[in-house]
């Protein structure tokens, strides 16, 4: 078969500088694709609730059906295998496995994931499980949510239920996906479930998310004994570049980097929170709720760091009218727009900053990394022949994969790349308005169609593997 040429004019070619065991994958999450929201014992998550809040989600859309993956799973696995990837990253739905967030496991919920894992393994695709991708059982939110310390212990209990059921056939486990989003979008900015707006609660959520991660990691490591286990966490990370060389702009970048990167990686890798950020929070009357033993648990050794990268950012330390403080009298940390290409999310496209990020992570934290999400939403159009020419997405993937290769050539220990997303899906507060998939989903018929980007990705993987054999 000759490689397909995307309509962007980009022809698939072998990617240089990647090791023979480099992982190629695609990624999804449970609430975004599964549907079956009320079937087989699943109870509501915070997203089921949030979607019913007037004005919270585009067109009042929700994940009740989503991509109907719960009923179409075998066909979806066949589609995944046809892309030639060796790894599929997916998340477990906590309220499907442990309804209400307490008590014993739900056998029917676990059976679905056992079937999924077996289908993947039967097709030669490695399952890569994420335990938490934002679907907290609503009952736990009613009891305080992530700002409540008990939620960390409930998470560790749920993690062990999942590991005990699936650990004999799954080696790769991620505890949390993007705890920054869970804490800040969910509890500080009100843009994600559960829609709360209190910075103090958000900072408590940060600590308890990390504590839950550490407790789960420690217990899973102990339970594994000598069995294979690759354990990690996935963080959404970017770069922070000052608009100018001014002290104010450098300070804005320090704060942005501290709140977005170091607040998570320092305790995970070094067992301590960054003191400058602790001081910044104290100036606002906020203290992280750390107790004896918490940081030791959070720093449970990991095997891999999952990196979700979508964009870097430029920051200024002054308002547009030149003030160094905002309306509340706090130092300004303002994102500055650049004249760069953008996605349908209005996100700047900054592939070279992925190289910068990976080199920085290698230098400062020295954990092996895998790109667990990278991709872009664009306004796709179906051609008269039924194909989906998505030249912008193909170019996006090509540029970011090249950035990964460049990072490896310059010394970063990057071990895999997973495209986000396998298919169009429920995009949180954007509902079904934004399409990230390399596979198009017709939400009326649930028909799946490979976009040109999927064909390009498939052929790029094949050519890269073949080049290593030659």
TrEMBL record:
One of its GO terms (molecular function) is beta-glucosidase activity. The active site is at 373 (nucleophile). Coiled coil: none annotated. It catalyses: Hydrolysis of terminal, non-reducing beta-D-glucosyl residues with release of beta-D-glucose. It comes from the Bacteria. Keywords: Carbohydrate metabolism, Cellulose degradation, Glycosidase, Hydrolase, Polysaccharide degradation. Gene3D superfamilies: Glycosidases. The keyword Amino-acid biosynthesis does not apply. Its EC number is 3.2.1.21. Belongs to the glycosyl hydrolase 1 family. PANTHER family: GLYCOSYL HYDROLASE, LP05116P. This is Beta-glucosidase. It comes from Streptomyces clavifer.
């Amino acid at each position: 078969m000759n490689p397909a040429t995307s309509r962007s004019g980009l022809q698939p070619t072998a990617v240089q500088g990647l090791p023979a065991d480099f992982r190629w994958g695609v990624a999804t999450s449970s609430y975004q694709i599964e549907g079956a929201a009320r079937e087989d014992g699943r109870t509501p998550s915070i997203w089921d609730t949030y979607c019913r809040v007037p004005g919270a989600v585009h067109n009042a859309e929700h994940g009740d059906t989503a991509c109907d993956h719960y009923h179409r799973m075998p066909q979806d696995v066949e589609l995944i295998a046809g892309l030639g990837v060796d790894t599929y990253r997916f998340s477990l739905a906590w309220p499907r496995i442990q309804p209400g967030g307490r008590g014993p496991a739900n056998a029917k919920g676990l059976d679905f994931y056992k079937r999924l894992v077996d289908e993947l393994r039967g097709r030669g695709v490695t399952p890569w499980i994420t335990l938490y991708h934002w679907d907290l059982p609503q009952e736990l939110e009613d009891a305080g949510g992530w700002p409540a310390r008990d939620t960390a212990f409930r998470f560790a209990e749920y993690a062990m239920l999942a590991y005990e059921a699936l650990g004999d056939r799954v080696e790769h486990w991620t505890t949390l996906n993007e705890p920054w989003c869970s804490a800040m979008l969910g509890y500080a900015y009100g843009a994600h479930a559960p829609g709360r707006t209190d910075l103090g609660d958000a900072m408590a959520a940060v600590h308890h998310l990390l504590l839950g991660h550490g407790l789960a990691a420690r217990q899973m490591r102990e339970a594994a004994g000598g069995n294979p286990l690759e354990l990690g966490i996935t963080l959404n990370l970017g770069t922070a570049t000052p608009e100018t060389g001014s002290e104010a702009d450098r300070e804005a970048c320090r704060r942005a980097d501290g709140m977005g990167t170091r607040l998570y990686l320092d305790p995970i890798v070094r067992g301590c929170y960054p003191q400058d950020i602790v001081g910044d929070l104290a100036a606002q009357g906020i203290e992280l709720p750390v107790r004896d033993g918490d940081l030791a648990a959070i720093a449970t050794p990991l095997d891999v760091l999952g990196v979700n990268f979508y964009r870097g950012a430029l920051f200024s330390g002054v308002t547009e009218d030149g003030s160094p403080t905002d309306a509340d009298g706090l130092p300004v940390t303002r994102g500055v727009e650049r004249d760069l290409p953008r996605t349908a999310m209005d996100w700047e496209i900054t592939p070279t900053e992925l190289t910068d990020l990976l080199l920085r992570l290698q230098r400062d934290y020295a954990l092996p990394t895998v790109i667990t999400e990278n991709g872009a939403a664009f306004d796709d159009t179906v051609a008269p022949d039924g194909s989906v020419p998505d030249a912008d997405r193909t170019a996006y993937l090509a540029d970011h994969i090249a950035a990964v290769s460049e990072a490896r050539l310059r010394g970063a220990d990057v071990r895999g790349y997973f495209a986000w997303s396998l298919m169009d899906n429920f995009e949180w507060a954007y509902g079904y308005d934004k399409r990230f998939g390399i596979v198009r989903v017709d939400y009326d018929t649930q028909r799946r169609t490979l976009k040109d980007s999927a064909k390009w990705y498939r052929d790029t993987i094949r050519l890269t593997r073949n080049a290593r054999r030659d």
